[in-house]
Amino acid sequence: MLSDSYGRVATDLRVSLTDRCNLRCTYCMPPEGLDWLPTPELLTDDEVIRLIRIGVTQLGIREVRFTGGEPLLRRGLPSIVAATAALDPRPRIALTTNGIGLNRIAPTLAEAGLDRVNVSLDTVDADTFEKLTRRRRLDDVLAGLAAAAHAGLTPVKVNAVLMRDINDHEAPDLLAYCLEHGYQLRFIEQMPLDAQHRWQRATMVTADEILDRLSQAYTLTPADTAQRGSAPAELFWVDGGPATVGVIASVTRPFCGACNRVRLTADGQVRNCLFARKESDLRGPLRAGASDAELAERWRAAVATKLPGHGINDPSFLQPSRPMSAIGG
Questions:
Q1: 228 marked ligand binding residue
Q2: Is 219 annotated as a binding residue?
Q3: What positions does the entry give for S-adenosyl-L-methionine binding (predicted)?
Q4: Cα gap 329→325, rounded to integer Å
Q5: Could you state, in order of their start, the residue ranges of all structural domains in the chain?
């Protein structure tokens, strides 16, 4: 197992397939984009599949989520999904995407074995979408959501970040859209993972503020917290249910004590936390000829050093040097 010194066991593997993205969200990267990782530094499809296999068959990984950057930009995505689905024991397989291009590839991914998707969508207003992402692609994202639902990649979940004085007033409208279409909405507090390092606690829209805005239009009742487990979202029944809305309050209501996640970056580094400032290299040993057993042992050693929490609320907290697009969510 991938266990740490605090008794937590990592069973959820987040695999970043690329640091590239076709949006330029203001809370993630600058308008001109970033210097992408050189191709030779990225894990090949076969290397990704090998490390996932080791994680699943030797280290107790039960869920694999593909992330980016934007993972739909990875040409080998369908074959990587298919190889993951063929593992025994078969892990649950999810994808976090901005939804652009999902309308074309959703049936292929479902056939390959993908179970469900999370789509990032912060607004259903075209002008606000362009202001936030610097691209006029809202229709493409909405088409991707519909295609995912039609392909059976359910439950379709929507991840939303509210930015003060930009889209924070749109929370009820976004929930109304998701309720109408049967999507499960999760609001995420903005985290200090932007490439520009401009995150400020004072401008972050908190979980309490999100719930207050939603409560102006809906009656929210806390769901059974006993069933939350390691899930990051705190769930609330909407108008008595059965629909729910979630809030992922990484900053103001941290859930590090129940974390079961470990991350593999697109260039083959193990990260124990989104906010970790240290990584453990698997790509180097893999390419130097390390055996599966040796790679597994390196992975165990990396997870064993996991810190008790992300430390955002500690005065000494320093934002990681890598932005979210290079880490994978």
A1: no
A2: no
A3: 27, 69, 120, 191
A4: 8
A5: 2-327
The answer to whether 324 is a known ligand-binding residue is no
pLDDT, tens digit, 9 for 90 and up, residues 82-132 = 999 999 999 999 999 999 999 999 999 999 999 999 999 999 999 999 999
The CA distances from residue 321 to 34, 97, 274, in Å, are 13, 23, 11
* Angle, vertex CA 96, rays to CA 82 and CA 244, nearest 5: 120
Please tell me whether 263 is known to bind a ligand. yes
Task: Check the annotation: does 257 bind a ligand.
Answer: no
Task: Kindly compute the dihedral angle of the four CA atoms of residues 23, 28, 34, 36, in this order, to the nearest 10 degrees.
Answer: -80
Joined tokens for residue 284? 């180097």
| 278 in a known ligand binding site | no
Burial 139-157 (b: 16+ CB within 10 A, else e): ebbbbbbbbbbebebbebb
21 is in an annotated binding site: yes
Is 256 known to sit in a ligand binding site? yes
Burial class (CB in 10 A: 0-12, 13-18, 19+), 108: middle
Cα separation values, 9 from 59, 144, 273, Å = 10, 34, 13
What is the separation of C-alpha 160 from the centre of its chain, rounded to a whole number of angstroms? 11
- pLDDT given for residue 195 in this prediction: 62
- Grade residue 320 by pLDDT with cuts at 50, 70 and 90: confident
116 marked among binding-site residues:
no
For 267-314, the pLDDT digits (tens) are 999 999 888 878 999 999 999 999 999 999 999 999 999 998 887 777
| Residue 71 preceded by cis peptide, ω within 30 | no
Mean pLDDT score of the chain, rounded to an integer? 92
Predicted local distance difference test score (pLDDT) of residue 145: 98
Is residue 261 part of an annotated ligand binding site?
yes
Residue 34 CB neighbour total at 10 angstroms: 17
157 is in an annotated binding site: yes
- What pLDDT score does 130 carry? 96
Q: Is 178 annotated as a binding residue?
A: no
